[in-house]
Design goal:
The complex is a heterodimer of chains A (about 210) and B (about 130). By secondary structure, chain A is of the alpha+beta class. Chain A folds into two domains: about 80 residues, no CATH class; about 110 residues, Beta Polymerase, domain 2, CATH 3.30.460. Chain A contains nine helices and four strands, in the order αααααααββαβαβ. Chain A has a four-stranded mixed sheet with strand order 3-2-1-4, with helices on one face. In chain A, helix 1 packs antiparallel against helix 3 and helix 3 packs across helix 6. Chain A is globular, with a radius of gyration of 20 Å. Chain B has a single domain, classed as Four Helix Bundle (Hemerythrin (Met), subunit A). The chains are: A alpha+beta (about 210), B mainly alpha (about 130). At the A-B interface, helix 8 and strand 3 of A face helix 3, helix 4, helix 5 and helix 6 of B.
């Protein structure tokens, strides 16, 4: 007789089967598949061979193009790696791995923006609830994403970040703009932060 | 681009809708936050439009990032930056994520975030 957790595993794997090719090719499709996989991979994390064997099945291989399969498989592998990498209490933080060089000053930005970024990091890095800081660029606007781990829906710590943001903004030259966002991991327990961060985000700070 | 009166009219419309929706007693607290945020957007835009010391992209902001930065640099409302940024982020989360806000949190947002913004803006605009 199958245990409850085994039944859940099987259901999770089965839920990945009906992959419509057109849907998969769309961004939403990719996200959905990734979400499904993330959910299931947490249950399957201890038996990663199951994922390997599933992705090599005929139904998987024939239901998607070679490109899609590669993309999906890399997502699968990535999700699993993240889960194994992080301690249990952080397993929902599915953050994109940053290359070492990204932690250096961002060469593409002006020295003024770099200085502002460094200033912001200096202001918040000693706050123990600050876990990571990312930057992204969209329509020429640089956005700084501060990932915090604090009590859900208690804004006390958020406001400390806003104080730091204000100090940075007040030193910007006339007309210059920086966007800021704060995300509390404890408010996103059922949704990967990786899906909320922009695709082109780069990590510029991580708490060691 | 709206003029001053139109911005204020939109702010009041949003406030009316907030009262009408009685969001604190409903299951749609996230939409309550969105409505309050857009009421604040129009109050803030009215004040920024008046401030001739600001550069053009701050006086007439077309993007949220411009507006948020402008608030930080506008002497009459820089004190509400933290509150406004909080409401801005919560409204994004309300619209684009699965997040729904507990009623107690929503009430907190109304009294500790929205009310200070409203008070400060109305004072800056010489409104009762």
């Amino acid at each position: 007789m199958k245990t409850y957790s085994e039944t859940k595993k099987i259901k999770a794997v089965q839920s990945m089967r009906p992959i419509d090719r057109n849907y998969l090719n769309s961004w939403h499709g990719t996200i959905e598949v990734f979400r499904k996989f993330r959910h299931s991979s947490m249950m399957l994390a201890s038996s990663s061979n199951e994922i390997d064997s599933y992705t090599s099945t005929e139904s998987f291989q024939t239901s998607t193009s070679k490109y899609d399969r590669r993309k999906l498989y890399s997502l699968f592998r990535y999700a699993r790696a993240r889960i194994e990498e992080y301690p249990p209490n952080l397993k929902y933080i599915n953050v994109r791995p940053a290359k070492k060089e990204l932690l250096q000053p961002i060469q593409t930005e002006s020295s003024e923006i770099n200085k502002s970024l460094q200033n912001f990091i200096d202001l918040v890095k000693d706050e123990s609830f600050v876990r990571e800081i990312y930057i992204s660029k969209n329509n020429s606007i640089l956005t700084v994403w501060t990932i915090i781990e604090a009590i859900a829906f208690d804004d006390t710590n958020r406001f400390k970040i806003y104080d730091a943001q204000l100090k940075v903004l007040q030193k910007l030259k006339e007309g210059r703009v920086i966007g800021f966002r704060v995300m509390n991991v404890n408010e996103y327990e059922h949704c990967s932060l990786d899906l909320l961060l922009p695709h082109n985000s780069q990590r510029i700070f991580i708490r060691q | 681009m709206l003029n001053e009166q139109e911005h204020l009219y939109k702010a009041w419309r949003n406030e009316d809708f907030y009262e009408y929706g009685d969001f604190a007693k409903s299951d749609f607290t996230e939409w309550g936050i969105v409505v309050l945020f857009y009421a604040c957007v129009h109050y803030v835009d009215t004040i920024l439009n008046r401030d001739s010391a600001l550069p053009h992209n701050f006086r007439y902001p077309s993007r949220h990032e411009d507006r948020n930065t402008a608030i930080g640099q506008c002497s009459s409302i820089s004190s509400i930056y933290q509150f406004y940024q909080s409401l801005y982020e919560r409204s994004i989360e309300a619209r684009y994520t699965h997040m729904s806000f507990p009623t107690s949190y929503f009430v907190n947002v109304v009294t500790r975030v929205y009310e200070p913004i409203r008070r400060c803006c109305r004072k800056a605009l010489n409104l009762p």
